[in-house]
Amino acid sequence: MHTIKKLLTRYTNFLWALLSPLGVWGVFAIAAIDSALLGMPLDAVVGGYIYAKPQLFFLYVIMASAGSALGSIVIYVIGYKGGEVLIEKRMGKERFDRMRARFEKQEFVAVMIPAMLPPPAPFKLVVLSAAVLEMKLSRFLLAIFAGRVVRFLILAVLVLYLGPSAVNLIGTMITRHLGLSIVLAAAVGTGIVWLIWSRRGRREAQAE
Asked: Most exposed: 63, 69, 160, 193, by fewest CB within 10 Å?
């Protein structure tokens, strides 16, 4: 276990050295790659940027969220082309049926909440499901972006107060208390969606 941690630390340090000269575009690139192809130590990289230049924390949050959303298009296209057979092979029919039920109730929240959670939350399976169930691309991207903004804002606050160790703290909390983390994320996500819809409702009422 100690050897694995050392390897992950070296890998993260290597990425940080490679991407730090790119500034905010480095955050965007690593987030896009993480969502599109390989699982990367995204929180560690974003946390490193925020710790190095705390005055730019909100810009890093936005760029990382945008990169995650755009990178997810790759998995979305794979799911859209592969169809229901692909996702059932990956998830199993029973699990996919539960996912379908969540999407039918509230597809935006069904994508946004997993987007708020760092690994080991199975985010790419949610992306595949959204594609197979033909969620509108614009709503899909907005849901991911909103979820990632919440995730990285929480990370930013913790890094600003606790330093880089906050990244490990988040990972430990998610691993040990996955159920509680999902409930908290659901509560936050529902609150955000309610605020969005209530503001929209007020604007429509004023327009009339």
From this structure: 160
